[in-house]
Write a structure and sequence with these properties.
Strand content: 5-15%
Domain Penicillin-binding protein transpeptidase: 481-653
Domain Glycosyl transferase family: 73-259
Keywords: Carboxypeptidase, Cell shape, Cell wall biogenesis/degradation, Glycosyltransferase, Hydrolase, Multifunctional enzyme, Peptidoglycan synthesis, Protease, Transferase
Largest sheet: 5 strands, mixed
Strand order of the largest sheet: 2-1-5-11-12
Oligomer: single chain
GO molecular function, one term: penicillin binding
CATH superfamily of the domain at 81-275: Biosynthetic peptidoglycan transglycosylase-like
GO cellular component, one term: outer membrane-bounded periplasmic space
Length: 725
């Protein structure tokens, strides 16, 4: 019986040998003797089947790393689904190339894509009971390309990775390999393979593997390092040196044996490398804005701009795939010379911050709309900084950060920093800054005769009128009791007098001019999505609405640019992996959004804020007023709870919004009164007290890098009533 079984086994192996021999003959004929193959194929279905297989292989560019970079090219963040950085063959150590060829396909430079000799050798070895593969490097490259193509198409590649390939699959792979060899050189195929092959979930391709395992570039790999990586590709999980160091060293030495056998190294080189200890220097790659080298939240804002722009794909999924796979280079407007000081300042403002006060700075360049810096005193992940962790971007609209379910904070109440809107409307009507208004008036009842042509004014300040939920509506209040008197519009602004702003609004020929000024300055609701601010609501004259710091900085930049409003922009260019520009944000400015002379007159008033008004209280810890030493203008702002405080100011070249307050939207529960901030007690926080010094310290470091010359003088006709035409 045993003899019968042995005979059957021998017969089975013989049949298998014959079948594979026929297959090899078909392959050889198909590659070397097409005429003979055609004649032979008339009586043999194998060749007919082989000839019917597709021979064109579309080599989809492999997934690679997208880079977000600052204006000077310095890195901000990397994004990828596969950590891969393709490099040319000349940027790969020769030891790597030799090691891979020696262990995977030592006849690589001799065959035409399919090694028939290798197939016969493998069949004989398998018949003897020794498992041996026969795929050439070209075939392995084909298999990896097919897998990568499936991933790029959003399909499941596991059948290619783990499925059992039948004879048809192998034949198709072989014919594609043969076709590939007619189209590409051996070096091109080898380079393609080394850039595509999987080493580790953290490393795709030889460059990423070199950086991950050894923290060196592929061109700088030593012989033992090269041999180790060449060994990993045969079984990335089995020979992972971080998980299985002994197995990886054994495999490395097997590679070195192959290199010695095929003449790639000398005996001494082999022996020295085989004795070399495993010296890993692992550098795990980090991807995403949470791991940004700088400006985490600016990074998130930029990413949102790309993912919502149809330029980069028809659907959100298409755009996400482009970012995560296409190796884009997204160049931004961020100026690291400003970003560094901005981040340092917001971190210093609130210190360890156990009460979770939020601080933010954002700078826009007047006349261009470029966002130059964007910082806040939080981090996206625990353990990254001061312990205040949040995904909310304090500086932008709710819809202007990646993931609208988190996104931007949605803006904050700007308080008195909204008063220049009314001033702009006042000057737009040809009125003057030094004209007096009755700031003694405190009652504005429901039936007050506002001059409005576009919308009915809503709200009232009148303690004689009942208004739920209070028994009476309060009269209009100022922060201090001694300012209920006639005064100039100018004084009302620089001293931040509420009753003067209302008297100015009451003196307009059309209350709706405030809405027009607001729209012209690009002011909008912090929710984003194009939602307008409703300036027919009286409380909004004093900053009762929510507005983002970026919106405020852009509005004030309009004054600095003599009335030219520019839409804020963060992306200068987007290039594909080949370096071709495929997108970016163009300069989008409206000259005369505000009349130039009106903008100059507003600036003239806001300069007084810093020299004799509310901004004069911007002091250091020693009580000394902090000044920039260059022409500047600004306005403070504080909400009714002292929980949202601002200073928005500018020079000719920089417009910066500085914010300090309750950034997570509990303004009524987190009052800015009788609180300690950074070890200092504050009976009540005002815009000049914390947001002000934050602005001034930062701007001191930034102003010299951009235009800081004198502002243009306004016409006298907008200053003095005596000079009116």
């Amino acid at each position: 019986m045993a003899r019968v079984l042995r005979a059957a086994a021998v017969l089975g192996r013989l049949v298998a040998f014959v079948v594979v021999s026929v297959l090899c003959g078909a392959l050889a004929a198909g590659l070397f003797m097409p005429v003979a193959a055609a004649a032979w194929g008339a009586t043999n279905g194998t060749v007919q089947f082989f000839d019917s297989l597709p021979s064109e292989l579309t080599v989809t560019p492999p997934a690679r790393v997208t880079s977000i970079v600052a204006a000077d090219g310095s890195p901000i963040a990397s994004l990828f689904s596969e950590n891969r950085t393709p490099v040319g063959l000349n940027a790969i150590s020769p030891d790597v190339k030799n090691a891979v060829v020696a262990i995977e396909d030592y006849r690589f430079y001799e065959h035409g894509g399919v090694d028939t000799t290798g197939i016969l050798r493998a069949v004989i070895a398998n018949l003897r009971g020794d498992r041996q593969g026969a795929s050439t490097l070209t075939q392995q490259y084909v298999a990896n390309v097919l897998k990568e193509n499936l991933i790029a198409q959003g399909q499941d590649p596991t059948v290619v990775l783990n499925g059992q390939k039948d004879l048809g699959d192998k034949l198709r792979e072989m014919k594609l390999a043969i076709a590939l060899e007619t189209k590409y050189s051996k070096d091109e195929i080898l380079a393609g393979y080394l850039n595509l092959v999987f080493f580790n979930p953290n490393a795709y391709g030889i460059q990423a593997a070199s950086r991950y395992f050894f923290s060196v570039d592929a061109k700088d790999l030593t012989l033992p390092q090269a041999a180790l990586l060449a060994g990993v590709v045969n079984g990335p999980s089995v020979y992972d040196p971080t998980a299985h160091p002994e197995a990886s060293v054994q495999r490395r030495n097997l590679v070195l044996d192959a290199m010695l056998k095929h003449g790639y190294v000398t005996q001494k080189q082999h022996d020295d490398a085989a004795k070399s200890p495993l010296k890993l220097k692992v550098s795990p790659p980090h991807q995403g804005c949470a791991y940004a080298a700088q400006a985490q939240y600016f990074c998130d804002y930029v990413l949102h701009q790309v993912l919502n722009d149809p330029t980069y794909g028809k659907t959100p999924d298409d755009r996400y795939a482009a970012v995560m796979r296409d190796g884009l280079t997204i160049s931004t407007t961020l100026d690291p010379r400003l970003q560094g000081p901005a981040q340092a300042q917001v971190d210093a403002t609130a210190g360890a911050n156990p009460d979770k006060w939020g601080t933010a700075l954002v700078t826009v360049q007047p006349g261009t709309g470029k966002i130059l810096a964007m910082a806040q005193n939080t981090r996206m992940l625990p353990g990254q900084g001061l312990g205040f962790v949040t995904s909310y971007n304090f500086n932008v609209d709710r819809t202007d950060a990646h993931g609208n379910d988190i996104g931007g904070a949605g803006g904050f109440q700007p308080g008195s920093s909204a008063k220049p809107l009314t001033l702009t409307a006042w000057l737009n009507e040809g009125k003057t800054t030094d004209e007096k208004v009755n700031a003694a008036q405190r009652r504005y009842p429901l039936n007050h005769p506002w001059h409005d042509t576009c919308a009915k004014v809503t709200g009232a300040y009148d303690d004689t009128t009942a208004r739920p939920p209070w028994n009476t509506a309060p009269d209009l209040q100022n922060d201090e009791p001694n300012w209920y008197r006639p005064m100039s519009v100018r004084e009302g602004i620089y001293q931040s007098i509420n009753t003067a702003t209302f008297a100015s609004a009451a003196g307009l020929s059309d209350f709706c001019d405030i809405q027009r000024a607001t729209d012209a300055l690009g002011m909008h609701d912090g929710e984003g999505g194009g939602k307008k601010l409703d300036m027919s609501t009286l409380g909004n004259l004093l900053g009762g609405m929510n507005v983002s710091p970026l919106t405020m900085a852009s509005a004030y930049a309009t004054f600095a640019a003599d009335g030219t409003y520019c839409t804020p922009r963060s992306i200068t260019s987007v290039k594909d992996a080949q370096g071709t520009k495929i997108g970016g944000q163009s300069k989008d400015c409206r000259e005369g959004a505000v009349k130039p002379d009106v903008a100059k007159a507003v600036t003239n008033v806001l300069q007084d804020v810093l020299t004799k008004g509310s901004g004069y209280n911007i002091k250091d810890n020693a009580g000394k007023t902090i000044t920039l030493g260059v022409p500047d203008a600004a306005k403070t702002g504080t909400n009714q709870y002292n929980s949202e405080t601002w200073l928005v100011g500018y020079t000719r070249g920089l417009s910066t919004a500085s914010y300090f307050g309750e950034a997570l939207h509990n303004p009524e529960d987190h009052l800015g009164r009788n609180v300690y901030v950074n070890g200092r007690f504050w009976p009540a926080i005002d815009g000049a007290y914390i947001a002000g010094p934050q602005w001034a310290y930062y701007m001191q470091k930034a102003v010299g890098l951009y235009n800081h010359g004198a502002f243009d003088a306004p016409p006298p006709s907008l200053i003095s009533p005596d000079k009116k035409k």
